[in-house]
């Protein structure tokens, strides 16, 4: 139920079995089905969700009702509306499941409790936040300065199974393109 | 809350499980209904959808799976069966809200079987140490759910628990069921709440309230 979670944790920090048991006490195992929401815009994000199995996405909706995908999360990724999770203000993202998924949820309170008891956990959170920040910086830089072909190739490197698991229109939404433009980009890359 | 919460009802075909399921199916909830009798569950699902066409209800044949998917778990089985249920769902109820509705009555309905220094809710908390047990719906009769306004007054429904977020979530659920939620205190207040219902049951039998009765605090 928490295998991948502790595997990922072990990549970053060393924990004794006793410390793992303490962390386990604070985790919420949660199954969610395809198309169900984990979070809707306007609610406070009380949890960060680690994906043990499955796939989710975070997206925002503009005034015209169009969806803009901010992030995908597959096995081993964490997803939330970080702004809302950190500040307790209402979320601006919606998060839903693209497949039947198994998650490990951590609440803000649980995170505080774990930090009190296991100071090493701080390093894990720091590495996670740094990682998320770097990913965000990369995404912004690539939006501003790379060609569409380069952006598409980088995206596939970031999420190797993306094409098999996510419909084209969602990949287009993530890149800020129309599906037609995306297929043109893909054709161009193929013909090279 | 806009995000639809998933509630597992363990013991959904009983008097309380059925009343709670019917009532909450009208709100923004997804309900997972569990008991061992699959055909009774199917009938209940059909009945709910017939009265509330958009209801999001699903019979589920395993209490472990239902609780794994749930955000909130309602244990609507007789008090004596709670240990068996807790043993099955413990792992997947970790850190989740578990609602204790039990009144631990003896067979003649004139006393509680629990010791004075504990309650059914606290016993459930001992069985599920990492869950957030909240006492609710024990002071409302099953029949009250179909008629939460009695004699022109909205029935009070008392809630007790140790976790503030959990109390808030359960208050919303109680309100969605049509009652007036009143947070009474921490989980040990369940002792008082369970005794209050013992009194109401004894009076109901004595004066023939016909199981349609409830509590209302009058105040300025
Ligand atoms: N009735 C009320 O007005 C009222 C009011 C407040 C609180 N309560 C409390 O609510 C609880 C339920 O009372 P009730 O009147 O609804 O009882 P009930 O009608 O006898 O229903 C009990 C339910 O629990 C199920 N069940 C029994 N053993 C089980 C087990 N080991 N695992 C899973 N499910 C099991 C039964 O399923 P099967 O039919 O398949 O056996 C049935 O669906 C009690 O604790 C009671 O004190 C009742």
- State mean pLDDT of chain A (0 to 100 scale): 95
Strand order of the largest sheet of chain B: 3-2-1-4-5-6-9-10
CATH level-4 homologous superfamily of chain B: NAD(P)-binding Rossmann-like Domain
**Overall strand count of chain A:** 8
Query: How many DSSP H or I helices of chain A?
Result: 9
How helix-rich are the residues of chain B, as a percent range?
25-40%
Shape of chain A: globular
Biggest chain-to-chain interface with counts: A-B, 24 and 16 residues
Series of H and E elements of chain A: HHEEEEEEHEEHHHHHH
- What's the pLDDT, averaged over the residues of chain B? 97
By CATH, the topology of one domain in chain A is Jelly Rolls
Named at the architecture level, the CATH assignment of one domain in chain A is Sandwich
> CATH class of chain B, please?
Alpha Beta
The CA-CA distance between the termini of chain B, in Å, is: 30 Å
CATH-level-2 architecture of chain B: 3-Layer(aba) Sandwich
Radius of gyration of chain B: 16 Å
Strands side by side in the biggest sheet of chain A: 1-8-3-6
Major sheet summary line of chain B? 8 strands, mixed
Helices, strands, pairings?
The complex is a heterodimer of chains A (about 190) and B (about 220).
Chain A: H1 3-12, H2 17-25, E1 28-32, E2 37-39, E3 47-53, E4 56-61, E5 67-73, E6 78-79, H3 82-87, E7 94-97, E8 101-107, H4 108-117, H5 121-145, H6 148-158, H7 162-165, H8 168-175, H9 179-190
Antiparallel strand pairs in A: 1-8, 2-7, 3-6, 3-8, 4-5, 4-7
Helix pairs in contact in A: 8-9
Chain B: E1 5-10, H1 15-24, E2 29-34, H2 38-51, E3 56-59, H3 63-69, E4 72-75, H4 82-89, E5 97-100, H5 120-127, E6 132-135, E7 149-150, E8 153-154, E9 156-161, H6 164-176, E10 180-185, H7 190-207
Parallel strand pairs in B: 1-2, 1-4, 2-3, 4-5, 5-6, 9-10
Antiparallel strand pairs in B: 6-9, 7-8
Bound molecules: NADP nicotinamide-adenine-dinucleotide phosphate (NAP).
The site of NADP nicotinamide-adenine-dinucleotide phosphate has 23 residues of chain B, from helix 1 and helix 4.
